User: Which sequence fits this backbone?
């Protein structure tokens, strides 16, 4: 069986509706950590905390949001590699709704497993497991993954070709300060 990474909402994980060998749990900075029985995943759980914005910091509606860092994305990719090396064939990734942060991290893991040139196939694999049809990977995470994996803009371009929603969100964030087609460049 090929390596699988899939995204899902936090509620599914908290209910125990997940069968995977490992889990990446993503919680917003000002939210409570997800309640997870880590034994269900053989204690293979990576917990990350960042909000669903691609910028280092973003303020709106009186709230300050903190985006992902390069180190967090690298930690997720490293975790995925360690899981594959240990024979784990499936990694679940959750965020609050299972649409943006988790899909971007899952895509990074799949693209890493598929190797250079497999970006389009990685996007297809991600979308095949998106039962809601609402996946729209976080552009900041995607750009960090492209950089970390040495893919130029191949993951971002593959997403733009197949997910119109991603293109819309990318434009939204570029209007709010995300540099077009550049890595975020911060740690």
Assistant:
């Amino acid at each position: 069986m090929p390596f699988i990474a899939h995204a899902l909402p936090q509620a599914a994980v908290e209910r125990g509706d997940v069968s995977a060998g490992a889990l990446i749990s993503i919680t917003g900075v000002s939210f409570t950590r997800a309640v997870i029985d880590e034994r269900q995943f053989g204690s293979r759980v990576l917990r990350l905390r960042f909000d669903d914005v691609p910028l280092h910091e973003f303020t709106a509606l009186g709230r300050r949001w903190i985006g992902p860092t390069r180190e967090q994305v690298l930690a997720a990719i490293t975790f995925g590699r360690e899981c594959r090396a240990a024979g784990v064939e499936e990694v679940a990734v959750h965020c609050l709704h299972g649409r943006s942060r988790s899909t971007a991290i899952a895509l990074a893991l799949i693209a890493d497993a598929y190797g250079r040139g497999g970006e389009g196939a990685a996007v297809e694999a991600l979308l095949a497991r998106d039962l809601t049809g609402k996946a729209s990977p976080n552009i900041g995470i995607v750009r960090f993954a492209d950089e970390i994996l040495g893919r130029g803009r191949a993951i971002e371009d593959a997403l733009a070709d197949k997910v119109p929603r991603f293109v819309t969100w990318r434009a939204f964030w570029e209007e709010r300060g995300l540099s077009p087609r550049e890595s975020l460049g911060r740690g």
User: Anything to note?
Assistant: The beta strands are 4-9, 22-27, 45-49, 57-60, 63-66, 90-95.
